[in-house]
Known about the structure:
Blueprint: E1 4-8, H1 17-36, E2 38-40, E3 45-49, H2 100-113, H3 115-127, H4 129-136, H5 138-154, E4 160-165, H6 167-180, E5 188-194, H7 201-204, H8 207-210, E6 225-234, E7 258-263, H9 274-278, H10 281-285, E8 290-292
Helix pairs in contact: 3-4, 4-5, 5-6
Amino acid sequence: MYPIIIAIHGRGNKLPTTTLSAHWQQALQHGLQRYNQSQLHPHIDFKMAYYADHFYQQPLVLSAATTTAIQHIHAIKPLPTRNNTHNNNNQPLATTNTSHWGSKMAEWMEDKFNVFSWISKPFLKSLLPDIHHYFHDSSYQQAVEQPLIKLINQYQHRPIILLSHSMGTVIAYNVLHQLSRQTTPPQISTWFTFGSPLGLTSVKGFLPKITHQPSVRKLATPDCVTEQWINVSDKTDIVCIDHDLSDDYLANRHQVKPQDCYITNDYPGNSHKSYGYLWSDVIARYGIPKVTL
């Protein structure tokens, strides 16, 4: 049985659901074609858990001047080959760049002193109102979780590959814990988190409450993730300033814990952009059935 890909987008207003879904699929196909001359297997379905319409009255409008589904998708230069991005044991490696040590220092400061989490709190409500609402408004929380819950339950008879970006990774973490408590939980074979804030203390502090685990001392991988959790980040992506989730989340009963993978998000001018994560070599490397062109 072929798996189904279920995706959940990040914070902020979005294009209409059908357009956004088409863009994500095009970005996936673009990355597969560039890295190993393949494409998604035709028997794999793609479904988008769309929740932006619960906060924004009107979706974004695609410019009439745009000639491709993703304006920059064919304009960027070729990316590095697979051999440049991981070692001989096929393990993820951090990309080498001039900001590497500065980024590691920022992560250490966040881990030790919660610097960036405390700085971000006063701005959360004004600058990131949808994330603020998710943590503080239970009705909004339930509303934005429903599209993902509905899709996973609808297709729980099939292996599921879950793609999540930004705020969508936080929603997915909560939803997967909820669904793990079902009598017959779904099976998420591979969970990708792109540009995730799940390492920030200000985010982790809310998770025991919203996942209904108030007494938990150490967060863990949801039990319905059965094979792998691939956490993907760009060292310059400020949303995931704490890039390493492997030291923040324990393994679940399947012995699955986050595998941290560092890439260069080549979307022009935005290292947090979902498309840049989706067309990276990570998708070509991990667990999605494909066919050679």
